[in-house]
Specification:
The chain is α+β, with helices and mostly antiparallel strands and about 250 residues long. It is about 25% helix and about 35% strand. The chain has 2 domains: about 1-25; about 30-250, no CATH class. A hairpin with a 4-residue loop joins strand 10 and strand 11 (about 180-195).
């Protein structure tokens, strides 16, 4: 009788504890926990969004010889490294954007690499298919675009969520569609940065050429520092990375 009672208690414990373990497993990978340094903003639809105040390595902004953080304009870099293409534009003013599209030269490889230049940001999208390119303009085939293409930090198509998180850290938020096996990791990051002294000197020299009477106090107030804004969106299908979009901007 005592043995039966012990077995019953063990089964009861497993029933009670089981859901907790399953829930814990379902929540991985977790989002970054809220921090005092976090701030909040709104997206274009007015929804409140959390922003992490931290940085990721600059190697996450580099792919196929193009660097979003470089002073040279991103589409110019892409044209120089991957070849000139017809760019496509949309929007106007603060919402304007021009894009250049490249795809694998191999017939059986559906990898796409798209660069974008907005009013204040530069971006790239690495995709496993053509869904990221919304335009009728054909994409330029390039031998530099292959399924093994990766950011300088090591992110590439086919990686698992854990592998991407090992490089970028925990995401700001996450969405999941269990029915179709799709997961999205979203990183909304900001960091206050000091302008590189060489870049600051270059800007000052250029400004003095056009305005010899420049107020240097105002110049330094507006140029000595900036806010680095980074948005990264990683999409996974059955835990394999299918789309990576990285946006970088330096804002006053």
């Amino acid at each position: 009788m005592q043995t039966n009672r012990n077995v019953a208690l063990l089964v009861l414990c497993m029933v009670v504890a089981g859901p907790a373990f399953r829930l814990s497993g379902q929540e991985k990978p977790q989002v970054a926990p809220p921090a005092k340094s976090d701030s909040y903003g709104e997206d274009e639809h007015g929804r409140k969004l959390r922003i992490q105040h931290r940085e990721v390595s600059g190697t996450n902004f580099q792919i196929a010889g193009v660097d979003l953080a470089k002073s040279e304009e991103v589409l110019s870099q892409a044209a120089r490294v991957l070849g000139k293409v017809t760019t496509v534009g949309s929007g106007d003013g603060a919402y304007s954007n021009r894009e250049a599209c490249y795809r694998s030269a191999e017939q059986n490889d559906s990898t796409y690499l798209i660069f974008g230049r907005g009013e204040v940001d530069s971006s790239f999208t690495l995709s496993s298919d053509s869904s990221a390119w919304k335009w009728k303009t054909p994409c330029k085939r390039s031998p530099w675009v292959t399924r093994s293409l990766a950011t300088a930090s090591g992110i590439h198509l086919g990686q698992t969520q854990e592998q991407v998180i090992a490089i970028l850290g925990l995401p700001t938020r996450r969405s999941r569609n269990i029915q179709n096996g799709r997961d999205n990791l979203i990183y909304s990051l900001e960091a206050n940065k000091k302008t590189d002294p060489r870049e600051l000197a270059r800007r000052l020299q250029q400004a003095l050429k056009t305005n010899p009477d420049l107020n240097k106090y105002i110049f330094h107030r507006d140029n000595d520092s900036y806010v680095l804004v980074v948005d990264i969106h990683a999409t996974f299908l059955t835990d394999a990375l299918t789309n990576l979009t990285v946006s970088w901007s330096a804002q006053d």
